[in-house]
Amino acid sequence: MQSSVISTSFQEEADRQENMLRPKMLKDFQGQQRLKDNLAVFVKAARERKEPLDHTFLIGPPGLGKTTLATIIANEMESEIRMTSAPALDKPKDLAGILTNVTEGSVFFIDEIHRLKPALEEMLYIAMEDFEIDWVIGQGPAARTMRIPLPKFTLVGATTKAGSVSSPLSSRFGITCHIDFYTEEELSSIISRSAKIMNVAIDEEAVMLLAKCSRGTPRIANRLLRRLRDFATVMADGNVTPKVVAFGMDRLGIDSNGLETQDRNILRTIIEFYDGGPVGAETLSISVGEAIESLEDFYEPYLIQKGYLKRTPRGRMTTKKAYELLGLPCKRNMDDNQGILF
Question: Are 243 and 272 contained in the same domain?
Answer without folding.
Answer: no
